[in-house]
Amino acid sequence: MEIDVKKQDENEMVFIVRDAEVPFVNAIRRTAMMQVPKLAIEDVFIIKNDSAMFDEVLAHRLGLTPLVSDLESIEGLVMPEECDCDAEAGEYCPRCSVSFYLSAVGDGEGTTKVVYSGDLTCDDSRIKPVYDTIPLLKLKDNQEVELEAVAKLGIGKEHAKWVPTTVCAYKQYPEITFNLSENIDFAAADACPRGVLVANKEDECIEINDIENCSLCKACIRAQQASGSNYVNVGYRENDFIFKIETDGSMPPKEVLLKACDVLDKKADEFITFSKGGSK
Length: 280
Prior knowledge:
280 residues; Gyrase A, domain 2; RNA Polymerase Alpha Subunit, Chain A, domain 2; four-stranded antiparallel beta sheet; 12 strands; 21% helix; flat
């Protein structure tokens, strides 16, 4: 198997996987979405809330606020089920949780004060909301909100707030060929919604531009069927894939991928151990 990284930045990663099979690639996709630990607010203790927003709605918005969860920031934290504290009671424990505090008061000047995610303060300087400008609630004159929130590690299998990815998908690598014995139908190129096929009428041919951008929609095939032409063929390579991971900013996409591979490797070892034990 070969991996070729085509694009990578702090929130997005696109790479090519060659000589792999669908079950393996899909296992990585599912694991990256559902099994990679991420930090999210789990318990919210409302001390005071004079705003028009219900406590439950405010707690829901806090839970869905992305928190910095890279390996360096969450170093030392353990999953709640691995901690010996009374996690179910919602108590704060420094081994498996991080405490946030929010306190804000309306300006009292006839204007509405917007409370943002950046107003949350944390007892751990490494951990904070990924984005400071997520609006949480509005306060009118002299309205006040005060609360404590406890964030814990979790996985997307339990709740969407622990899903680290906003996009995690793959497609089989496109393959476009031409039947040179057929008459050229430039309508096939004109119908391509992504500009992958380009009509070169001077040289009497159709050119391929960025084949990896092809979505395999086969609009070109349908367009040439009107004239009975079979010049363009659209297919895919059986064991090659284009994989894209995009995160909510809580952790780098490369970290998500590596952690997903670690989880898969651990599960495989457990399965092998179980199989050997069962055969005795």
